[in-house]
Amino acid sequence: TVNSISDEKKVNKSSEKTRTPKVRKWKSNIKKELEVECSVKVEDLNVEHQFAEGPFFTLADLILFTLYSIVIKSLDEKVIESLLPLTYKWFS
33-38 contacts: CB < 8 A, separation 24 or more? Predict the structure, then answer.
């Protein structure tokens, strides 16, 4: 019986040490207050995209550049220029 009492105390102490996780407020769970009207054309946004993801060169540009170089080499440049003029301009 003495052993069982000491075992119960150990169990109680170990259960007291366990922590319950606290509820986190993730940024993705917060409702976005900014809404963008879908009827606005990209040309009317007045956003300068010198590179693929904005005004600065990023890893996305490096990856896209290698992909576009493969596509442009495998297809005719005139086809790419007529179908994707902004992409062709960016690549040139």
Answer: none
